[in-house]
Amino acid sequence: MCIARHGRICGIVDAERRIVSVGIDGQREEISLAFLSPPGEALETWIGVVVAIHVGFAVQRLEEADIALLAELSLMP
Question: Please, are residues 58 and 33 in contact by the beta-carbon 8 Å criterion?
Fold first, then answer.
């Protein structure tokens, strides 16, 4: 079972290594997009996207319906 957190991507830290900054509960953390973003893809397209995060890796892109459900459950600011 995966215990994932969610956060919104807010910046690029290291494009070559696929490392981005995410906002989680008012804090910023660095995570890897290596599982979701292939080499060569422009990371700028990920800015503002909400992702599920497990042990420092983005493991799923959350769709608008998922984000709305999290907001309804008061799990998304």
Answer: yes
Work out the end-to-end distance of the chain between its first and last CA atoms, rounded to an integer number of angstroms.
25
Which residues does residue 27 pair with via DSSP β-bridges, in sequence order?
A: 24
Q: How many residues does the chain have?
A: 77
Q: Cα 2–58–33 angle (5° rounding)?
A: 150
Alpha carbon distance 67, 1 (integer Å): 21
Structural domains of the chain in order of their starting residue, each with its CATH number: 5-72 (2.30.30.140)
| CA proximity to 51, closest of 1, 17, 18, 14 | 18
Which tens digit of pLDDT belongs to each residue from 41-66?
Answer: 999 999 999 999 999 999 999 998 98
- Nearest alpha-carbon partner for 60 in 36, 28, 29, 30: 36
- Cα separation, 74 vs 56, in Å, equals 23
